[in-house]
């Protein structure tokens, strides 16, 4: 029988689920989880993020591709938690992004909410719908496709 997931999930536990590490781990906490359906996670965006040095000096904005990457990582957490596995034996790669839209800028001090649902799973491919929000307002969305590597 499977163990229930204890929420919230913090960074050390997330590091058991994902292979990403600083500066590319873009999920700080998981606060909601429905197996095989949905996850809600957070990324605390701070002025110390390395990408702010060049994007953009004097007017820091989190790159949209990193917002989408954070959604994809949250999707990876959803899959790993749902199958109760760790990053040790499985690697998933982002293979496609559809319908990405960026509505508002994400800046230092924001808490990026990563709301990801499973749209469909076909063999080793998962299709997610991701919505990123700050203070309850949508800042970006995308359909994300990830595939498990045969590594």
Quick summary of this structure?
The protein is an alpha+beta fold and 151 residues long. It contains two helices and six strands; from the N terminus they run αββαββββ.
List the helices and strands and how they pair.
Blueprint: H1 11-17, E1 29-34, E2 38-44, H2 64-83, E3 92-102, E4 111-122, E5 125-134, E6 137-148
Antiparallel strand pairs: 1-2, 2-4, 3-6, 4-5, 5-6
Q: What keywords describe this structure?
A:
151 residues; alpha+beta; 2 helices
- Give the neighbour order of strands across the main sheet: 1-2-4-5-6-3
Rg: 15 Å
Q: What amount of the residues lies in strands?
A: 35-45%
E-strand count: 6
What sequence of helices (H) and strands (E) makes up the elements? HEEHEEEE
Work out the helicity level: 10-25%
What is the overall shape?
Answer: globular
- Number of helical regions: 2
Main beta sheet: 6 strands, antiparallel
Average pLDDT reading: 94
Q: Roughly how many Å apart are the termini?
A: 28 Å
Provide the structure class.
Answer: alpha+beta
**Uncertain regions spanning at least 5 consecutive residues:** none
Explain how this protein is built:
The chain is α+β, with helices and mostly antiparallel strands and 151 residues long. It has helices spanning 11-17, 64-83, and strands at residues 29-34, 38-44, 92-102, 111-122, 125-134, 137-148. The chain has a six-stranded antiparallel sheet, covered by helices on one side. The mean pLDDT is 94.
């Amino acid at each position: 029988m499977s163990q229930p997931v204890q929420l919230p999930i913090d960074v050390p536990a997330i590091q058991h689920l994902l292979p990403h590490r600083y500066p590319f781990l873009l999920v700080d906490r998981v606060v909601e989880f429905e197996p095989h359906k949905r996850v809600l996670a957070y990324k605390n965006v701070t002025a110390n993020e390395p990408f702010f040095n060049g994007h953009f000096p004097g007017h820091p904005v989190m790159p949209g591709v990193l917002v989408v990457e954070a959604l994809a990582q949250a999707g990876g957490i959803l899959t790993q938690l749902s199958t109760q596995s760790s990053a040790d034996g499985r690697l998933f790669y982002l293979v496609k992004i559809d319908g990405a839209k960026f509505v508002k800028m994400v800046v230092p001090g924001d808490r990026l909410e990563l709301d990801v649902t499973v749209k469909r799973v076909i063999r080793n491919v998962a299709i997610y719908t991701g919505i990123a929000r700050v203070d309850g307002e949508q800042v970006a969305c995308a359909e994300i496709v990830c595939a498990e590597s045969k590594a």
